[in-house]
Amino acid sequence: MALTNRAKVKRALGVPGAVTIHDEFLDTLLEVADQEILAYVGMAAVTETTATDEAYDIEDSHTREVVLRNFPVITVSAVKAGGSTLATTSWYVDTNTGVVRLQDGAGYFAPGSEEVEITYSYGFSSIPADLSHAATLICIGHFNRSRHAGLTGEGMGAYRYTMDSHAIPRSAASILSRYRRIFPKDSQP
After folding, report:
1. Beta strands in the chain (DSSP E)
2. pLDDT by residue (tens digit) across 14-35?
3. What are the φ and ψ backbone dihedral angles of 172, each rounded to 5 degrees?
4. Are 94 and 63 in contact (CB under 8 A)?
């Protein structure tokens, strides 16, 4: 699933491709960056996944929307309420946030345990360039901090060097903020 690759990270670090001494460590950092990004943005997966069926509890009689566990949504193939498949004209989906809403005039979902069932696929069909760049920045941050483990800063005379103490560098967090779900649901791969 790697959001970035070893060649991109090496290029950003200024490490020639033929130098392989760090390759195993960089491969570990690729996995670490992927998992940090998934946790930070609240996604279960980034790459396209096959359709998944999920059931949702409806707690009150005034519910018109369901927040899917996973996003971004590629397609929603079916919405069932009370065992009946709803017409595609009675609901719509916000693919970026993963929210399925009933259209005006379609009423409300009936309360009940696992009352609504939704079949959908989620993820990106291709990794967005900025998301890949954020993963590269995270790998670089971990690589640079690993050589200075425990060091937060040093100085001599007018010279000062300070390490970024954030697990996700601010430049990467800035990119990831547009993908982040503010109120994440429990994600399930």
Report:
1. 52-58, 65-67, 73-81, 84-85, 91-94, 99-102, 112-122, 153-156, 159-162
2. 999 999 999 999 999 999 999 9
3. -70, -40
4. no
In angstroms, the first-to-last Cα distance of the chain is: 13
What type of residue sits at position 182? Answer: I
Alpha-carbon distance of 121 to 129, in angstroms, equals 21
| Residue 70 per-residue DSSP state | S
Q: Burial of 7 by CB count in 10 Å (0-12 exposed, 13-18 middle, 19+ buried)?
A: exposed
State the residue for tokens 């429990």.
186
Structure tokens at 157: 């005379």
Alpha helix stretches (DSSP H) within the chain: 6-13, 23-41, 129-146, 170-176
Residue 12 Cα distances to 5, 9, 124, 127, 137, angstroms: 11, 5, 24, 19, 8
Tell me the pLDDT tens digit for each residue of 50-97. 778 999 999 999 999 999 988 888 899 999 999 999 999 999 999 888
Token pair of 46 as six digits: 């980034």
pTM: 0.73
Cα 34 vs. chain centroid, distance in angstroms?
Answer: 9
Phi, psi of 166 (to 5 degrees): -80, 135
